[in-house]
């Protein structure tokens, strides 16, 4: 049985769709267009942030701490993409999602940064994607970065601070 091809819409720098439903594997063939991604900063009732440690088998940033993130599939809203990615990666369905910033990031992706809320703990996650999932305070994350105890994906702290400001 073959794996289903993931179709995506590519956008220009202003977020307007310019190419619809192309295979994700072909996205890089369009250098002036951008793959849409979501990064979701999901907070619990105590203000702790949902983070995950990327699986060591991942080709990009293995073992790094990350927020919920992933591609927006063709025809999907950023909010729907964030819910899908969160459920896939962490087993948590975020509530009250809102986009706090959008635009082209340093990886040439059109990034939607969303904030949302969670009212429960993760009871399942995809071990192919992540090694562990937990809620941590922003201060704890900063301290673990400062000490070198944990490593983080690029732009993690910029996204975290923007999310905190957007709450």
TrEMBL record:
- Tell me where in this chain the Nudix hydrolase domain is found: 32-158
Keywords per UniProt: Hydrolase
Coiled-coil region(s) at which residues? none
Organism name: Candidatus Woesebacteria bacterium RIFCSPHIGHO2_01_FULL_39_28
**What Gene3D superfamilies is this protein classified in?**
Nucleoside Triphosphate Pyrophosphohydrolase
Cofactor(s) annotated in UniProt: Mg(2+)
Recall the taxonomic lineage recorded for the source organism: Bacteria, Candidatus Woeseibacteriota
Q: Its Gene Ontology molecular function terms?
A: hydrolase activity
Organism domain of life? Bacteria
The protein's name is Nudix hydrolase domain-containing protein
Could you tell me which PROSITE patterns the record lists for this protein?
NUDIX, NUDIX_BOX
């Amino acid at each position: 049985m073959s794996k289903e091809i993931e179709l995506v819409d590519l956008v220009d720098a202003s977020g307007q769709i310019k190419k619809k439903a192309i295979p994700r594997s072909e996205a890089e063939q369009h250098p002036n267009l951008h793959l849409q991604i979501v990064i979701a900063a999901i907070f619990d009732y105590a203000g702790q942030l949902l983070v995950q440690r990327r699986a060591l088998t991942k080709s990009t940033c293995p073992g790094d701490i990350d927020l919920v993130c992933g591609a927006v599939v063709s025809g999907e809203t950023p909010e729907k993409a964030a819910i899908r990615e969160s459920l896939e990666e962490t087993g948590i369905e975020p509530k009250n999602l809102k986009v706090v910033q959008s635009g082209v990031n340093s990886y040439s992706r059109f990034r939607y940064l969303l904030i949302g809320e969670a009212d429960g703990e993760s009871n399942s996650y995809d071990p192919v994607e992540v090694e562990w999932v937990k809620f941590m305070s922003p201060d704890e994350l900063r301290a673990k970065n400062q000490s070198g105890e944990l490593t983080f994906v690029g732009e993690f702290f910029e996204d975290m601070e923007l999310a905190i400001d957007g709450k």
